[in-house]
Design brief:
The protein is an alpha/beta fold. It has 14 helices and 12 strands. The termini are far apart. The protein folds into 2 domains: 202 residues, Aspartate Aminotransferase, domain 2; 133 residues, Aspartate Aminotransferase, domain 1. Bound molecules: pyridoxal-5'-phosphate.
């Protein structure tokens, strides 16, 4: 029923606005943000939480889910409030007490610790292997094994998992394969048989360092199982954040390709520098995973790591010497980011594992942004020469 606004007090008018729709047949080129917690179903429409509450469903979130699902060639997708919400939501949605999960030491530390400690509290057993240990993977499978969960390229030293082999072992035993594909982005690894992709959209997908978000993509039936769990856990993405991620996606390919091209130039520069002992970038032929990366990736991306000669100083001091590289964790911003890799390891790893994985105070990770490659290389050159920037 129409309201007679003339009869209303000002405070009532301010809570019941005069709605402005578009002229009939017109549309907004950029979708509006449904920045609302609630919807009111029209007369004759079903009254359910699906149609009335943003924690359950919101068109701005759904648009982003459809974009990501299409990009990853999956049947469906759900977006959540962070990459960790996506990882934990998928694990809790798909596993139950008595199940066994196999994962790897080369996995994002909070995810690995959640698998090792939190899942264990709910009666879910885990085995953590090296990602290259395929014979060990096959041996670790038991009748209870429900999921193999891995990351590629991995953090911080960009190890490349042999995805085809992991998938083939999993399929032989009818086990679900879940991959954290954050570093490679949602346009890659889509044709290798992975069942479920999780992403931190905080990184290259949003691309501007101003949003925390995550996603899970896979078959409709799998996402439906997870969605119910995610709705109850309540890790809903805010509509404004979802809209920002959607905006970031518009320039995703340009940003990713630019960062990858610059990363290759930086990797080549560092490889030829006498004060650099080691460079980890899968685009370099010297990287142990180079051939594997070429066979399963379209682009080796914008993240690389390297180890400086101890005479240059420790990684932390080196970070503070740089002018353009911003010292911080995280990856996938417009600005180039740098940090010591020590922070990525974690106490749950044995000293032998950590050593084998490159744990040392001289190692750094760079996430390449959108600056000119020459400027970034000059900044690194000066840092390596020992000139203080700040
Ligand atoms: C590979 C990877 N996966 C997952 C995450 C978690 O994402 P978020 O910080 O959005 O929760 C991160 C964060 O750094 C990451 O690097």
């Amino acid at each position: 029923m129409a309201i007679d606004r003339k009869t209303l007090h000002d405070s009532t008018k301010l809570t019941h606005l005069q709605e402005v729709g578009l002229p009939s047949g017109n549309k907004a080129i950029v979708s509006p943000i449904y920045q609302t917690a609630k919807f009111s179903p029209g007369e004759g429409q079903p009254f359910s939480s699906q149609s009335t509450y943003t924690r359950v469903s919101n068109p701005t979130l759904r648009e982003l889910e459809l974009s990501l699902s299409e990009l990853q060639k999956t049947e469906d997708c759900i977006v959540l409030s962070s990459g960790m919400a996506a990882i934990t939501g998928a694990l809790l949605g798909l596993l139950k007490s008595g199940d066994h999960i196999i994962s790897f030491r080369e996995t994002y530390r909070p995810a690995r610790i959640f698998i090792r400690s939190t899942l264990q509290r709910f009666g879910i057993r885990s085995t953590i292997l090296k990602v290259s240990d395929l014979p060990g993977l096959e041996k670790a499978i038991t009748p209870d094994t429900k999921m193999i969960y891995f990351e590629s390229p991995s953090n911080p030293h960009l190890e490349i998992a042999d995805i085809r082999k992991i998938v083939s072992i999993a399929q032989k035993h009818k086990i679900l394969v879940m991959m954290d594909a954050t570093f490679g982005g949602p346009h890659q690894h889509t044709d290798l048989g992975v069942d479920v992709f999780v992403h931190s959209l905080t990184k290259y997908v949003n691309g501007h360092g101003d949003v925390i978000a995550g996603s899970i993509a896979g078959k409709k039936t799998v996402i439906q199982e997870i969605r119910q769990m995610a709705i109850n856990l309540g890790a809903t993405l805010d509509p404004h954040a979802a809209w920002l991620v959607q905006r970031g996606l518009r320039t995703y390919f340009m940003r990713y390709e630019r960062a990858a091209a610059t990363a290759m130039r930086i990797a080549e520069f560092l490889s030829s520098h006498p004060m650099v002992k080691k460079v980890y970038y899968p685009g370099l032929p010297s990287h142990p995973g180079h051939e594997l990366a070429r066979s399963q990736m379209k682009s080796t991306g914008g993240i690389l790591a390297f180890e400086i000669d101890p005479s240059v100083g420790e990684a932390l001091a080196f970070c503070h010497r740089l002018k353009l590289h911003q010292f911080t964790a995280s990856v996938g911003s417009a600005e180039t980011l740098i940090c010591p890799t020590l922070m990525f390891f974690g106490d749950d790893l044995s000293p032998e594992d950590a050593k084998e994985m490159g744990h040392n105070p001289y190692s750094l990770r760079i996430s390449v942004g959108l600056e000119h490659a020459d400027d970034l290389i000059d900044d690194l050159r000066e840092g390596l020469a020992g000139k203080a920037g700040h």
